[in-house]
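Input.
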Amino acid sequence: MWNGSGELRCGPLRMRIFGFDLETEALARIGPRTEVRAWLREWSGISVYRDGFRVWPYGEPHDDWLRSISAA
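Output.
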């Protein structure tokens, strides 16, 4: 636990962000739009990795720590 004194560091950070517009015709190039939308909604969210390993349960539907609208 950090006591508020000294420097708080976490080291280098790398992020990959992907965005998909579920309402465009571009989805049709991937596959049937309804199936693609359902797949993207199921697999959307944020996953946390540390040293190449996924940190569970962050990002799982039962642990929506961001309280995102997409889980509704």
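Helices lie at 33-43.
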